[in-house]
Design brief:
The strands form 2 sheets. A 7-stranded parallel beta sheet has the order 8-7-6-9-10-11-12, sandwiched between helices. Strands 2-1-3-4-5 form a 5-stranded parallel beta sheet. The two termini are 31 Å apart. Helix 1 (14-21) packs parallel to helix 12 and helix 5 (99-115) crosses helix 7 (151-160). The protein is built from 12 helices and 12 strands. The chain is an alpha/beta fold. The structure holds nicotinamide-adenine-dinucleotide (NAD) and D-malate (MLT). Nicotinamide-adenine-dinucleotide (NAD) is lined by residues 73-75, 98-99, 102, 148-153, 170-174, 202-205, 208-209, 230-232, 256-257, 279, 281-282.
């Protein structure tokens, strides 16, 4: 009997592939290249993606045998969950696989932005010894505002607390008592915007959060604020952020995610006070190993007709 086919549309860890290969025929494609991806879906029982593959109605219509879509990571914004469910396709993800890596990358960008690490590095490698130009700020005694105090937001709070910061957060879905246990005071979005010296975004991308930090919001912040986004592009409006930094209404930013990816050209890249990374939040060996093995296990359970628990 033919083995069920699992299509891997983006990079997946070797450990994940090895787990799948024991029971399934594993095929590979480039999910970002629609002309390759769509025809490859024809005989597929399960599909594994990261964030570059759009699993939309068109993709689903090319996959008559599809029973499960697995996202090797957290965000499901590139998967049309409603259309998948309508088509009888189960959607699973690996919700804890990369949260430590994403939280650590956030702290890296906060510190890099506070201390001009990338700018000093660039200048020195270009032969320029610029000490006063790259004078930074301490985290100690500053207010850090966390937008979205979920899995990653909480890990960021834990990691920043020892720096002596005051932690506030906007998350209307969380109980104040739960936040208080973590040493975080819940506040309105406007309070966070007006009070924070650092704002870090850890929201899912949704209709409600897209453009949440736009021109109006960036007129409320302190001019000394530094904004970090390791969540999803578009939650912080890139054009509005560019204008705010250019006009001296925001001091700097650390950006890992972009409205359109891959992004190799952005007005933000022109600004010396913006440090950028190419969606590296989850790019550690540890996170990729966990994401690969967690989704491989979920695919096995799903194709075996068994209950798939939250990882
Ligand atoms: P999570 O679901 O655990 O937490 C999200 C939090 O946001 C929740 O507490 C929820 O109550 C809150 N929230 C939801 N909608 C809101 C709204 N409209 N207003 C205010 N709060 C709202 O998610 P997570 O695992 O912490 O992930 C956070 C984000 O990080 C996601 O966008 C995810 O895709 C992204 N992420 C990025 C990387 C990367 O590589 N850069 C890696 C992992 C995750
Ligand atoms: C995620 O949502 O898990 C991240 O964006 C990581 C990724 O897709 O690489």
């Amino acid at each position: 009997m033919n083995k069920p086919v699992v299509l891997v549309a983006e990079e997946l860890s070797e450990a994940g592939i090895a787990l799948l290969a024991t029971d399934f025929e594993v095929r590979h494609t480039d999910g970002a290249d629609r002309s390759q991806f769509l025809p490859a879906l024809a005989e597929v029982d399960a599909l594994i993606v990261r964030s570059a593959t759009q699993v939309d109605s068109e993709a689903l219509s090319h996959a008559p045998r599809l029973r499960v879509v697995a996202r090797a990571g957290v965000g499901l914004d590139n998967v049309d969950v409603e259309a998948s469910t309508k088509a009888g396709v189960m959607v699973v993800n690996a919700p804890t696989s990369n949260i430590t890596s994403a939280a650590e990358h956030t702290v890296a960008l906060i510190l890099a932005s506070a201390r001009n690490v990338a700018q000093g590095h660039g200048a020195l490698k270009a032969g320029e010894w610029k000490r006063s130009k790259y004078t930074g700020v301490e985290l100690d005694a500053k207010v850090v505002g966390i937008l979205g105090l979920g899995r990653i937001g909480q890990l960021v709070a834990q990691r920043l607390a020892p720096f002596g910061v005051e932690l506030i957060a906007y998350d209307p879905y969380l109980q104040p008592a739960r936040a208080a246990q973590m040493g975080v005071r819940l506040a309105s979005l406007e309070e966070v915007l007006r009070q924070a010296d650092f704002i870090t975004v850890h929201l899912p991308k949704s209709k409600e959060t897209l453009g949440l930090i736009g021109d109006r919001e960036l007129h409320m912040v302190k001019p000394s604020v530094r904004i970090v986004n390791v969540a999803r592009g578009g939650i912080v409006d890139e054009g509005a952020l560019y204008s705010a930094i250019k006009e001296g209404r925001v001091a700097g930013a650390g950006i890992d995610v972009f409205a359109k990816e891959p992004c190799t050209d952005s007005p933000l890249f022109e600004l010396d006070s913006v440090v950028v990374t190419p969606h590296l939040g989850a790019s550690t060996h540890e996170a990729q190993e966990k994401a690969g093995t967690q989704v491989a296990r979920s695919v096995k359970l799903a194709l075996g007709g068994e209950f798939v628990p939250d990882a």
